[in-house]
Amino acid sequence: MSISEILFYFLSVLALGSALMVVISRNPVHSVLWLIVTFFAISGHYIMMNAQFLGIVNLIVYAGAIMVLFLFVIMLMNLNAETEPKKNKWLRMAGIVAGGCLLLVMVAALKDAEVKRSVVQLKDGNIGLIKQLGETLFTDYVVPFEISSVLFLSAMVGTVVIGKKAD
Amino acid sequence: MNIEYYIVLSIALFCIGIAGVLTRRNAIIIFMCIELMLNAVNLLLVAFSKMHHLKGVATNPNAGIDGQLFVFFIMVVAAAEVSVGLAIIVMMYRNVHSVDVNFLNRLKH
User: Fold this and answer.
1) Which residue stretches of chain A have pLDDT < 50?
2) How high is the pLDDT of residue A115?
3) CA distance B38 to A138
4) A66 touches chain B (CB under 8 A)
5) What is the pLDDT of chain B when averaged over all its residues?
6) Which of B54, B1, B36, B52 is nearest to A24 (CA)?
7) So what's the ipTM on this one?
8) Whose CA is closest to A54, among B94, B76, B28?
9) How far is A5 from chain B (nearest CA, A)?
10) What number of other Cβ atoms are within 10 A of residue A62's Cβ?
11) CB–CB of B35/B107 below 8 Å?
12) Chain A: nearest CA to B109, how far in angstroms?
């Protein structure tokens, strides 16, 4: 078992376990903290696949900024395990069964797909570096980039408008 | 690592997100589960980009870079979505003092 396999299994177990804990834990603050662990594991996967820029951006944007936003909102509302909405036991069971069935069907459908010969390797290629990504982003994808800046601006304005106290 | 390991990992993460959306009632947790599903898709896009890079690097040194740029744009859209969604949740909490999505039943009548 090579070092990359060991790393892959470790990161996968970490990601899946903490993703399960996000869904299971009663306290929303704990959910946020487990989600941060999941993002760290996914960033580890990115770095293993030589997508260093995306790995770092994932850490900064998701684990840093967005999760702080979530934590801030949860603490602002003073949510904890006691204020957690109660839910019908059967409905919860049905949700778990539905998710499990989707997992089963998708794995069974993709099991025999013709992708087995291609491998993802470590230490090969440098498309994940910021130089290559930036060059492509500002030549081929410059229009979507500008449009996304407009999207950000409108989201910002919309957030302020929604969050403003109506009076 | 073979690509199918990454496919199975992404599907598992995605289905955990689906199960979370279906089972939880707290609006913020539902939001976080949507983030989880977006990240599963991002992971799969990066794995496929790597696969196409290894296949086409002989002819094009930038083969497969599109997948990583799509991940970048997904992150942008997700960040915008989170800011607007959290504002909506805060407004909802201010009005009904709860984040239970069942309160949204009142949208029906």
Assistant:
1) none
2) 61
3) 24
4) yes
5) 87
6) B36
7) 0.90
8) B76
9) 7
10) 25
11) no
12) 22
